[in-house]
Amino acid sequence: MDKHQSILLPAASEAAVAAAPQPARRRRTGRARLVPIAGVVLGVGLLASACTGGATDKATADTDPSGSGPAAAESHDEHEGQHTNTVDVGPLALFAADYWSIVQPSEGLTQVRAGGCPEGESCPSFDVLSGDAVGEVDTAQAYVPEGAFCPGPGRLEVGASKETSTLDVEIDGAKGTLTRFDLSCVDANGAEQMTVEQLQWFIPESPNGPTLIADRWAFEGLESRLYAGTWATASA
Fold first, then answer.
1. DSSP structure class, residue 166
2. Which of 19, 41, 133, 154 sits between 20 and 30 A of 122, alpha carbons compared?
3. What b-and-e string marks burial along 86-107, b requiring 16 or more CB atoms within 10 Å of the CB?
4. Residue 133 CB partners (closer than 8 Å, separation 6+)
């Protein structure tokens, strides 16, 4: 069953689109730090500290352009609005950035793209799989759909992947894991040109069934948005 619904969020400015294809996330060399199981409380705290300038584990467009993903710098007022306005992204209700464009390419797959990026291009995006769609993939491996490319110019293909860490997490009361993968980005001859990190959340039992979220584009604030999110109305 093929669906393609596009929801352009308001105020997707020219600046946000221009800032979309940020350089790939820098490869992490240190040990990943355990994400405490604190659900909504943790997420709200991270969002609040980002607004007030407090320290967080997640880089922002202001502090680390090479690792913050496709976000333009937000004003405090714009960020405050994200604390109260959510949008459904597949089975989740998340605090969305104004540059998010949400599409549903197929049943059980929701994709968030950088608004304004032309169709068919290698656009900054992350995927949310839910229900039966999760059963069609190996959740222990890096989720790389057919035709996917690495971040950045050159349309480098994703080659081998390697798991680097797995942490326990919780989204709105549902427990799961956050797995980090190093992806090898190769040219047409199969030669590695760079590596990028993919973050992959897997929640085996949510109110709407199993959920997998995969982000290789280092979307700004996605980690804290997920922990501050809630599950959308459960399926009957």
1. E
2. 133
3. beebbbbbbbbbbbbbbbbeee
4. 106, 107, 108, 109
How far is residue 71's CA from residue 215's CA, in Å, rounded to a whole number?
Answer: 14
Q: Which residue has tokens 């995927």? A: 127
* CA atoms of 25 and 28, how far apart (whole Å): 9
Dist CA 199 CA 123 (whole Å): 17
Q: pLDDT digit of tens for each residue in the chain (236 aa)?
A: 444 444 444 443 333 333 344 434 434 333 232 233 333 222 322 223 323 233 333 322 222 223 334 443 344 344 444 445 899 999 999 999 999 999 999 999 999 999 888 766 778 999 999 999 999 999 999 999 988 899 987 889 999 999 999 999 999 999 999 999 999 999 999 999 999 999 999 999 999 999 999 999 999 999 999 999 999 875 44
Report residue 154 CA to chain centroid gap: 21
Rounded to an integer, what distance in angstroms lies between the CA atom of residue 178 and that of residue 200?
6
Residue 219's identity, in one-letter code, is: F
Euclidean distance between CA atoms 100 and 97, whole angstroms: 6
| Tokens linked to 205 | 């039992």
Containing 101, the helix (H) or strand (E) segment is strand 100-106
